[in-house]
Amino acid sequence: MRQKLAAGNWKMNGSRAALHEVDELLRLHPEPKVEVLLCPPATHVAWMRERMGQSTFRTGGQDCHSEHHGAHTGDISATMLADVGASYVILGHSERRADHGETDALVAAKVRAAWAAELVAIVCVGETEAERDAGRTLEVIARQLAGSVPDGAAGRNTVIAYEPVWAIGTGRTPTTAQIAEVHAALRAQLHRRFPHEAEAIRLLYGGSVKPGNAAEIFAVADVDGALVGGASLRAADFSPIIAALEAA
Ligand code: PGA
Fold it and tell me: Could you please report the per-residue DSSP string of 175-192?
């Protein structure tokens, strides 16, 4: 049985003052039936961990370097994220791939670093609108999954997030049939490559998940939760998404 995961990605948003949203989420979900994760900017991970106290809520980073320490000005390692209380790290987000030229090989190296630091890696894959229009969605996803996920992936160390680039921050979402098609393809590929772990690896959908569409998305086969950007910033938006996942 895969434990469902409601993951929030604050991206480059938030502040110390915004951490009161965590208090509010804890008040609304004292004993969540699903795993709840919030990934704030790295500067705020330690404070968020502190706010989460003894709860089952988890925090994580949005990226890490592929090395654990060294002369890499401005970078942050998986070891450092773990040191301040992170349990997860998002890797290969399309914004990292686009803004920082991250390749599948680099993402795979970061995943190995995350595992070495005992972080769970959330590996993001997703097609652009042009790739979907060209009928290349499944081919692109397969290539990204093959290249970004190293040997050794297992349910305990890896989560895959399907995030169509054209659905991120746009308010547009794929149809449930389109989500089902990609998630089934991801699961099948995991079965071929990691036969003993494929059923344990969680698959998240991400891209414009909102309180109004969460239940419909969570009803899709092989959707084990969501990676939520904008709607994770406020407890008033993220709470109904957590509730929809609990009810799914
Ligand atoms: P969004 O972002 O929910 O704001 O579309 C999702 C993501 O990029 O993880």
Answer: -HHHHHHHHHHHHHHHHH
Contact 241, 215 (CB under 8 A): no
Mutate to test the pocket of ligand 1, among 10, 208, 232, 238 (most ligand atoms within 8 A of CB): 208
Active site residue 196: no
Ranges of each domain in the chain: 5-247
List, for residues 43-66, the tens digit of each pLDDT value.
999 999 999 999 999 999 999 999
41 burial class (0-12, 13-18, 19+ CB within 10 angstroms)? middle
Query: 222-248, pLDDT tens digit by residue?
Result: 999 999 999 999 999 999 999 999 999
Atom from ligand 1 closest to the CA of residue 161 = 9
pTM: 0.98
Architecture of domain 5-247: Alpha-Beta Barrel (3.20)
